[in-house]
Amino acid sequence: MAKVLAVVGTRPEATKMAPVILALRRREPSLQVKVALTGQHREMGRQGLAVFGLTPDHDLDIMEPKQALAETFCRAMMGLVRLYREERPDLVLVQGDTVSCLAGALGAFYERIPVGHVEAGLRTGDPCNPFPEEVNRKAVATATTLHFAPTVRAQQALLQEGYPASNVFLTGNTAVDAVQMLAQRQQEPEPAAQSALEACAGHKMVLVELHRRENWGEPLRSLCRALRRLVSEQKEAFVVFSVHPNPVVGEMVRGELGAVERVLLLTPPDYPSFLRLMKECYFILTDSGGIQEEAPSLRKPVLVARVRTERPEGVEAGLARLVGTNEGEVLNALRQLLKDRATYEAMTKGVNPYGDGRAGERIAQVVEYRLGLRAGPPEQFHPGEMT
User: Which terminus of the chain has a smaller tally of CB atoms within 10 A, N or C?
Assistant: First the structure.
């Protein structure tokens, strides 16, 4: 029996890894799948798994208050190496670009265990944008055996960097799988999210999620000032801000927006509740990578508060727009999307470039194939044939 260990640390990682875990578990008993949660986001990672009926087999619980990146990495690495020596999996799966992803991949490499990287090949070419994720991804790639590229651009980036074509697989992004799975459920949102929906009645909800490290400090303050000016001058606007649990972000956002009328600061709800907010909002302002992938599945325009994105496909398709962090420029973009119906409509049309809801199944087929449990080659993703 082949053994696969999936490593996750944050809620987005859990959400995006869940479709892969579920697809692999359909192969049991020939394939055993276990889940290791580093605890980089203490409760949110477990919450992200629970939405899909999953619980971690191992919880390293590494996070401590205001822990630095290097400390998080070291604690995750040591915990995972001990676990690898205990479990001896045939393959370790990591997702994305976090410190947990990097620790999971390098730890497995040091133990001579093959690594599969879900969502491989995203690049901006700028090591500081996003920080530290751009460098994390490139480092993970060097330790990876199976590269699961979500888009053609990501696939081409990996090939141009010299990774063998036989190890690079175009799969689509599992974020689309997760959205499609949960969109089919008739689930009531959490009370706080339901209250937010009720508070927004009669207004156009601007859903906000901002947390990137390169935006800490003046960029985040500038974004908050733009939002404050928006609700001051546009009475139809109502901002719902899902405030990241990092205390640096929370203290800054509450200081800038805590007492502003028609701005609701919300503790991050569970994933189904956040999807409900995305579905009901008018548009989204974010620096999140995952939301850039999820919003097109819900036909919601996205203003990306970054100077560069490793997910340019949405921008090229007209579904997202890079607006940076300058107060005046962001305010103008918010105003335009709120008031100009033609601009708004144009950003709700087009084909989702990120996936078709079968990425998890394709990744499971590759794993099965490379572990000698499948005779035929894995299914390929064709972006022009998305649902």
Answer: N
**What is the CATH number for 29?**
3.40.50.2000
Residues 332 and 205 in one domain: yes
pLDDT of 3-51, one tens digit each? 999 999 999 999 999 999 999 999 999 999 999 999 877 677 888 899 9
Q: Domain residues for 254?
A: 191-346
Q: For the whole model, what pTM was predicted?
A: 0.90
Residues 318 and 200 in one domain: yes
Q: Which residues are the active-site residues?
A: 97, 119, 133, 211, 213, 244
- Strand ranges in the chain using DSSP code E only, listed in sequence order: 2-8, 31-37, 58-59, 91-95, 115-118, 146-149, 168-170, 204-209, 237-242, 263-266, 283-286, 302-304, 320-322
DSSP state letters, 58-122: EE-----TT--HHHHHHHHHHHHHHHHHHH--SEEEEETTSHHHHHHHHHHHHTT--EEEET---
